[in-house]
Amino acid sequence: MRRTVPTRVVLALAAIAVTGSACAAPSTGITLDAKSMAAGRIHTAPLQAAEAARRVAAYGVVLDPGPLLRVAADIAAARSRVAVAAAQLVPARAQALRASRLYRDGHNVSQAHYQDALARLRVAEAGASEARAQARAITARARSDWGARLAAAAAGDSAPLPQLERGSLRLVEASVALGASLPAALEPPVAVLPDGAHVRLRVVGPAPRAAASIAGPGVYCVMPAEAAAPIGTPLALQLQASRRQPGVLVPASAVVWHGGRALVYVQRGASSFTPVAIAMPAGARGGYFVSRRAAPELRPGQRIVVAGAELLYSASRSAPPPAAAAAAAAAPGHAAGGVGRGAARGAR
């Protein structure tokens, strides 16, 4: 079925394209006259102040705790080697000191015996140094692979390592999408299982890498094993900041979506409007919450277009550049009536 465009919309677009000072890029402001605003039914309203906790969607997976438990075992083994090397160093140092005194006090021991004691000491010192270096390397690798919190838990055999080993907790790694960021402080998130069940998680700490196929920062959480989520289960999460932040409430009718971008038009004068991009607005009752940090250009009391924003966007995309418009106006035979006839033909 052929779709008919209302005549008033076509006429409004034509009027805006002629009288508006817009270019093809929506980042440029547009200026209308009173007649064009009335034809396009463009209305504005002041922004309302609001406060909300930042939320961001995340995607996660239930991890196999085996690699983390092996890291904990490697750290324990490395510490044991350090202790053994330190224990071997004590008698080697004592024997070397005794041999040195006897050799210097009248050669009561042979030079060969003295040199052998010194060599044993050097070997013990080298073994102790190597053990400490290995322990540091294993601990550094644990921090690099698992983050500071889980690495510390693995090194100290503290929570949640014993619970993961017993199977009473599951380890979850969740990451946000590319371009998003994690809130500084998180409330306990809620995960949605594939069967629709909701499970509350406990945050452990930041993850040093993104989860598989996700290209954003991540966080480690634990969930009760009773949730019946086996290893590899995909999860959908909502991460919410524990602190509320100031911002504005943008009505849904004011937002223009194009190519995944959200735009609103701010009134700069009686008939001038400038588009402002808002990055990933959070859904709220009646519209979207936009924090002051995400869009410092939007302030409470500032007037934005709440009706006719799509018309402004279409006009800013279709209007010719100022130079082209001036050339067309100077061309022979150009008249305002000609535009009106072209618009009428388009409406028919």
The percent of residues in helical segments reads 40-55%
**CATH fold group of the largest domain:** conserved putative lor/sdh protein from methanococcus maripaludis s2 fold
Order of helices and strands, N to C?
HEHEEHHHEEEEEEEEEEEEHHH
Q: Helix count? A: 8
* Count of domains: 3
| CATH hierarchy class name of the largest domain | Mainly Beta
Radius of gyration equals 35 Å
* Residue runs with pLDDT of under 50 for 5 or more positions: 1-25, 322-329, 331-348
Mean pLDDT: 82
CATH architecture of the largest domain: Beta Barrel
**Count of β-strands:** 15
Question: What form results from the Cα inertia axes?
Answer: elongated
Structural class: alpha+beta
Tag the structure with descriptive keywords.
disordered N terminus, four-stranded antiparallel β-sheet, 8 helices, Elongation Factor Tu (Ef-tu), domain 3, single chain, conserved putative lor/sdh protein from methanococcus maripaludis s2 fold, alpha+beta, 348 residues, disordered C terminus, nine-stranded antiparallel β-sheet
Quick structural gist:
By secondary structure, this protein is an alpha+beta fold.
Describe it for me?
This protein has 348 residues and is α+β, with helices and mostly antiparallel strands. It folds into three domains: 7-52 and 245-347, conserved putative lor/sdh protein from methanococcus maripaludis s2 fold, CATH 2.40.420; 57-63 and 163-244, Beta Barrel (Elongation Factor Tu (Ef-tu), domain 3), CATH 2.40.30.170; 67-156. The chain has eight helices and 15 strands. The strands form three sheets. Strands 3, 4, 5, 6, 7, 8, 9, 13 and 14 form a nine-stranded antiparallel β-sheet that branches. The protein has a four-stranded antiparallel β-sheet with strand order 1-12-11-10, covered by helices on one side. The radius of gyration is 35 Å and the shape is elongated.
